């Protein structure tokens, strides 16, 4: 068989390689069977090759550019999204080759490599996500070291002071108060980190019992205010809240102390923070809202991720642990949590939905996790 016949036989039989014979102006003069399959079009011949390109590439003059480069250099290799007859797209690897037989024209060869392209995109996204998470971890560890340095320095100073104060000195009580407050702050930071780690590995447990909604929220607000060391008012509205829900009281305190504390941290003294609770069918819906600095769409995407932080020149960004812990606890109770914001300067809103009753037939307290 003549080599030309063998080549023609290859293009007729191959299921993967589309071949288009183009005139000088880009009109398709011949297409092999694979081209009809790959482009889902049996009427390619007679049409301009630009019909096979994405609209934005046609507007950018890519079909003409490919032929111009191929005419000048003999070959133009190009990988890009191509368009089928139904408008769908596929990723094509291929080349445009100039014919030097005196009549001119081109052969455009390509393969559908969409699967490989998507696999590469997935791997790249995974790599970028891991790199971003690694950066978050590094930042969080540095922040944790900084946050712990303050209470530990106070603890050390108090220890030195207690060594020098005589027994019965009135300053001992105040020194012990500072000591206790800073030990508690350091302990809380470490406990949040440990709890978040347990939640991430599925090892967090909760102990469900019947708890009063108003008492749960009032206690959380008071605790958040004490930790923030601010007398700022937090308004609580209970227009249609259920009297009680079945949940772990300690874990619920972690949820709402973190949310209210977060609102206080990112809201200036002239701003407002309020909490609303209502019954929504068989669920409790709690909204924690503020008029603080708000969040950008980029921050909203990762706000519940471990070590995710919203940095601001005026407000402390925290460790990026609290909201990840909130999500873990709420989902462990069969609920959900959402973050909303209209952008920087427009405040934030967190919506927590919890089932009023856990799906357990036992009336007695039950363990989950």
Taken in chain order, the helices and strands follow as HEEHHHEEEHHEHEEHEEHHEEE
> Which strand-content bin applies to the residues?
15-25%
Q: Let me know the CATH homologous superfamily of the largest domain.
A: Histidine kinase-like ATPase, C-terminal domain
Strand arrangement within the widest β-sheet reads: 2-1-5-4-3
Q: Any low-confidence stretches, pLDDT <50, length ≥5?
A: 310-317, 361-369
The percent range for helix content is: 40-55%
Distance between the termini: 72 Å
Shape, per Cα inertia axes: elongated
Enzyme class: transferase
GO molecular function: kinase activity
EC number: 2.7.13.3
Pfam family, one: HATPase_c
Detail the topology: elements first, then pairings:
Layout: H1 3-13, E1 17-22, E2 28-31, H2 33-38, H3 55-59, H4 62-73, E3 75-83, E4 89-98, E5 106-112, H5 114-164, H6 171-200, E6 206-212, H7 213-228, E7 234-240, E8 244-247, H8 249-265, E9 273-280, E10 283-290, H9 297-302, H10 322-332, E11 336-340, E12 349-355, E13 366-368
Parallel strand pairs: 7-9
Antiparallel strand pairs: 1-2, 1-5, 3-4, 4-5, 6-8, 6-13, 9-10, 10-12, 11-12
Helix pairs in contact: 5-6, 6-10, 7-8, 8-10
């Amino acid at each position: 068989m003549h080599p030309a016949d063998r080549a023609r036989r290859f293009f007729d039989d191959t299921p993967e390689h589309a071949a288009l014979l183009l005139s000088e102006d880009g009109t398709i003069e011949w297409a092999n069977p694979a081209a009809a399959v790959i482009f889902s079009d049996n009427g390619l011949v007679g049409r301009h090759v630009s019909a096979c390109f994405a609209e934005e590439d046609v507007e950018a003059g890519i079909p003409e550019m490919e032929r111009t480069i191929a005419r000048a250099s003999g070959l133009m290799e190009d990988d890009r999204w191509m368009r089928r007859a139904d408008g769908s797209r596929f990723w094509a690897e291929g080349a445009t080759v100039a014919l030097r037989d005196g009549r001119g024209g081109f052969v455009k060869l390509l393969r559908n490599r969409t699967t490989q392209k998507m696999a590469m995109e997935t791997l790249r996204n995974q790599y970028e996500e891991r790199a971003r998470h690694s950066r978050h971890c590094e930042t969080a560890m540095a922040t944790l070291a900084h946050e712990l340095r303050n209470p530990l320095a106070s603890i050390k100073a108090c220890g030195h002071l207690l060594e020098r104060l005589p027994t019965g000195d009135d300053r001992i009580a105040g020194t012990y108060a500072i000591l206790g407050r800073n030990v508690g702050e350091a302990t809380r930071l470490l406990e949040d980190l440990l709890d978040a780690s347990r939640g991430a590995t599925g090892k967090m447990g909760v102990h469900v019992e019947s708890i009063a909604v108003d008492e749960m929220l009032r206690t959380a607000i008071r605790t958040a205010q004490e930790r923030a060391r601010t007398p700022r008012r937090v308004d609580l509205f209970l227009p249609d809240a259920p009297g009680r829900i079945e949940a772990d009281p300690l874990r619920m305190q972690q949820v709402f102390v973190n949310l209210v504390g977060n609102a206080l941290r990112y809201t200036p003294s002239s701003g407002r923070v309020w909490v609303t609770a209502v019954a929504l069918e068989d669920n409790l819906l709690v909204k924690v809202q503020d008029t603080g600095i708000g969040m950008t769409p980029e921050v909203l995407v990762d706000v519940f991720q471990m070590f995710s932080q919203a940095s601001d020149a005026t407000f402390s960004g925290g460790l990026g642990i609290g909201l990840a812990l909130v999500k873990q606890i709420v989902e462990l109770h069969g609920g959900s949590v959402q973050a909303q914001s209209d952008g920087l300067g427009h405040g934030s809103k967190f919506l927590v939905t919890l089932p009023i009753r856990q799906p357990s037939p036992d009336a007695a307290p039950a363990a989950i996790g």
